[in-house]
Amino acid sequence: MKERIAAATRQSGRNIDEITLVVVTKTFPVTDAQILYELGERNFGENRNEEGLSKKELVGPDAIWHFQGQVQSKKIRQITQWAEVVHSLDSVDHARKFADADNANALKFFLQVNLEPSRADRGGVSIAGLQDFLGEIAGLKNINIIGLMTVAPLGVDPEGAFEEVAKAKNLVQKNYPSITQLSMGMSGDFEEAIKYGATHIRIGSSILGSRPAQA
Ligand SMILES: *Cc1c(COP(=O)(O)O)cnc(C)c1O
Fold this sequence. Notes:
The chain has one domain (2-205): TIM Barrel, CATH 3.20.20. α3 (49-58) packs parallel to α4 (76-82). Strands 7-6-5-4-3-2-1-8 form an eight-stranded parallel beta sheet. It has helices spanning 2-11, 30-38, 49-58, 76-82, 92-100, 130-137, 158-175, 190-195, 205-208, and strands spanning 20-24, 43-46, 64-67, 85-89, 108-113, 145-150, 181-183, 200-203. The model has no long low-confidence stretch (mean pLDDT 95). 38% of the residues lie in helices and 17% in strands. The protein has 215 residues and is an alpha/beta fold. The protein binds pyridoxal-5'-phosphate. The site of pyridoxal-5'-phosphate has 12 residues, from β8 and α9. Pyridoxal-5'-phosphate binds next to β8 and α9.
């Protein structure tokens, strides 16, 4: 895996230091995260609050936990107790609730972009809606948006999807200079994502094996 990431980075003329590997440990036992920690991994991704909360306690204190699942309002305060990076912000209401949490200014956020407007259930703000969304949350001093996140839609060329989100990032960065990062690329498409500027790749199954289907 490290070899493939390094190769994709070289081919894109990029530096390996620009890429953060987030190992998505959701549904896998905490022992997997502990072993990866011993091997030097520090970034772990979870999509359920309870699972992240309990795993954080059992893995080295300098591990960085990433929340990348759909946010539920009533879980927000708890999410802020274990996650340092939230990849899936897509609601102004949620942003306000995060801003009210005690340690809100210690968190970093990616704004999730949905490239399939017909699949609103997937979560994410449409490309067309990004400027309005950012305008609405601009007054929330504690909400530090560092980048855009996406999941490439099934059945389309991931390169086109990643290129579109990279362009959108460059556009919004003009008005919001803190938006510099791109969270995109999973087991099946991280090489394409690196080509289009991903700074955070979220990889589970190709490191840890296939996981049972999630509800
Ligand atoms: C599960 C998940 C991943 C990891 O997917 P793999 O295909 O196992 O690499 C990445 N991002 C999100 C948002 C996920 O839910």
